[in-house]
Amino acid sequence: MKITGVKTYLVQAGARPDLTRSMGADADFRGSRCWLFVEIETDEGITGVGECSGWPRVVETAVQDLSAVLVGEDPSAIDRLWGVLYRAMMGHGLTGTVGSGALSGIEMALWDIKGKALGVPVWQLLGGAIRTRIPVYGHAHTADEARALTALGYTALKTPFTGIVDFDRIAMLRETVGPEVDIAVDAHGPSWMTVSDAILVGRELEAFDLLFYEDPVPPENLDMLARMRDHVAVPLAAGERVGTVHGLRPYIERDLVDVVQPDTGRGGGITQMRKIAAMAEPHGIMLAPHSGSLGPVAEFAALHIMATVPNALLLERIEFDWEGRYDVVTPVLKVEDGCLPIPTAPGLGVELVKDEIAKYPVVRNVAKAPVDNGKAYVPGTADEAVHVQTRRARARSLRA
């Protein structure tokens, strides 16, 4: 079997619906949300699909550039081809999220081809399933959103904390769902907290028995995360902006996190994600792949990964998403008792619906400036677009 072509499909994915049960705090991507699907064709008529993230509009160019390396190759030689692609990019510098995103979608599609050719799901090729159901966590900002998730059997949820120190909301969510449901806090910026603020907030969060405290400080400075590690007694999570095992290595080797969160669309591929999990396992670090802005193909890939690694924690799941999500692929995943069952069809178990994809041409893939409403930045400072910002009026938010 030989690769004969590589196609890409961009989707302008809309914001999450502004309904009672929608994720109100996360509904506005400010025009930036795109999905990039990849399809690899072969001379035997078998095609494989994958998904790339990490600035999809730019990643598409990377995939198209790399296709010249792939055409004529045997798609079953997945690890060798990954190495060929990785080395092909080295002349351009270290592999950032654009390169990792391209590698992720391409390698995903190669695994899909191999599974289809052999007539087995990808998880079977990865050593077999440790578990057949993958627990998921959702996003909640209000009591209604939390109840909508728990009604579907969710036993964990996450609430955004970007720019706002809102302990009242966390207390409300804890009261709403009770002690049996885990709560996580996602604090990533912009604007990012200073390390001093992140520590003070983290100490306050200890009272809520969080599952984890995510991305409280800028990802460019791991020393800030190390300082936090020494001063708070709440589990820390990070890693969604980093690609490949090389990018996640310092998070793991320095024991900076309790939960590592590579993004399935830019982590470097299925094999890289499993390598990250394997490196994390002896450190007692759990794997909870990021999926906050991803489309549905990467979600299928994440299920295959999490079915086969011992230290899988939870998969991030956007339960109430933009309606187009449920049209551009088939089948559609559905939560059962707070879990997603692992796919059983050959390959990844998902196919693109190209007629639906064509309805959503890409217009924009970078975020507009945030509204100056005090949610992302201190009021009156949003147009400054600073990266890190001290939380002024912080004392009013901290418990007495």
Overview in brief:
InterPro entries: DgoD-like, Enolase-like_C_sf, Enolase-like_N, Enolase_C-like, Mandel_Rmase/mucon_lact_enz_CS, Mandelate_racemase_C, Mandelate_racemase_N_dom. This protein folds into two domains: 118 residues, Enolase-like, domain 1 (2-Layer Sandwich), CATH 3.30.390; 224 residues, TIM Barrel (Alpha-Beta Barrel), CATH 3.20.20.120. The protein is globular, with a radius of gyration of 20 Å.
Describe the overall structure:
- The chain is an alpha/beta fold and 400 residues long.
- Helix content is 32%, strand content 15%.
- It has helices at 56-70, 78-89, 97-118, 122-125, 143-151, 167-177, 195-205, 222-229, 244-253, 270-280, 296-308, 354-357; strands spanning 3-12, 34-42, 48-52, 133-139, 156-160, 182-186, 212-214, 236-238, 259-260, 286-287, 315-316, 329-330, 339-341, 351-352.
- Strands 4, 5, 6, 7, 8, 9, 10, 11 and 13 form a 9-stranded mixed beta sheet that branches. The protein has a 3-stranded antiparallel beta sheet with strand order 1-2-3. Strands 12-14 form a two-stranded antiparallel ribbon.
- Strand 9, helix 10 and strand 10 form a beta-alpha-beta unit.
- Helix 5 runs parallel beside helix 6 (167-177).
- The longest helix has 22 residues, at 97-118.
- The model is unreliable at 19-27 (pLDDT under 50).
